[in-house]
Structures are given as structure tokens and as C-alpha cells.
Specification:
heterodimer, A: 111 residues, mainly beta, six-stranded mixed sheet, five-stranded antiparallel sheet, B: 113 residues, four-stranded antiparallel sheet
Chain lengths: 111, 113
Amino acid sequence: GEDVEQSLFLSVREGDSSVINCTYTDSSSTYLYWYKQEPGAGLQLLTYIFSNMDMKQDQRLTVLLNKKDKHLSLRIADTQTGDSAIYFCAGLPGGSYIPTFGRGTSLIVHP
Amino acid sequence: KAGVTQTPRYLIKTRGQQVTLSCSPISGHRSVSWYQQTPGQGLQFLFEYFSETQRNKGNFPGRFSGRQFSNSRSEMNVSTLELGDSALYLCASSLGAGDQPQHFGDGTRLSIL
């Protein structure tokens, strides 16, 4: 089945850009998602990209997909303290209704 | 549009008891999925219901069960609770087609004493 890997932690300074990386194993994955989880809350869908796209931009968020390397990244421009959270990458294997989630990357934004 | 609503938000139970968690999906969503989230195992898929039928199932013991009603609301039941069942249980809903993303509720925090 699909395997999704993420680094566990990322620390950035307020105002800098953050880049969270993710790799997946299933080349048939059709959609790739980014979710954000704040303390005490569920997962909030941030953005998602279809596998035939290379890039998607949504305000401060930029998603890059390298399908050849099965690598997905989420760039957050002008990172704020309110962006501190756990970010989950998820891939939807072809023919499946259930995405596979990574373990999450804890983003810490310090002044 | 109201989001996914899970009740209760917090529960404390003792070993051997059973528990029922409830999830009301976003209006119009017909698929409801349940996940268990723990620090050690991350997010693990329990099962998914679509139009009152279990469509997908994860790798959990039979003590974990669920159902979906005709209004798409779903319940999850855990019997004979164990200490290891302490977790955040998340419900997610979607329209049900493969290309529609899941939207999550804020979860039920279950603590087993």
C-alpha cells in the first residue's frame, strides 16, 4: 500500500518562508493533500493538488509536486506564529477512497 | 455551512467498559470515515461508511465497530475498552467520490483509566 513520509520537525523564524517536504510511494496516487492540525483540534484541509499538476498556489501557500521523484512540498510564505501547528501530507492511492497520511511535521515559528 | 460535528468532545472511561462516539457530517456528504490518532501510531484509519454501508475497513480488532444512519450521521462503538484505546478519535466526511477531499471534525478525546 501507499507509504507517506515526512520529517518530524521544522523550526523557522517569523517572516521567513517555511518548506515542508513529503515523499510518497504509490505512483498511482491521484490526489495529494495538505492538512493542518492545531492543538486540541481536528485536521483542517489547507490545499490539495491533482497528480497531473506541478504546482498550485493559494495566497501564502504554494504546493509543488515532482511526480517523477514522488515528492510533494508545501511552502508557506511570510510564516507567522499562527502558522505553528502540525502539518500532514496525505496521498490518495489510485482506485481508493481513503487517503494515506504521513506522521505529520511539527512547524515551530519563533519570533 | 456547518462543519463536521463530533460529540462528545471528551470522555473518560474505565477498562472493560464500552463507549459510543457520534459524528454528524457536513450537509450533503455521504461518506464518513473514522480515524484513531495517537502520538505513537499517528493517524490510523478505522473504517469508512457510504450510504449506510461499510465500504472500507482498516486493521483494527472487532471491538471497534460503526454504523451509519440514513441521514449520514455515523456512530462508532468500542467495546471492552483497553488502556491502549486512549486516543483522539477523528471523524471525516466527504461527498464520497474519490476526488473529493475529506473534512475533519475536532475529534473526541477518549481517556481510559
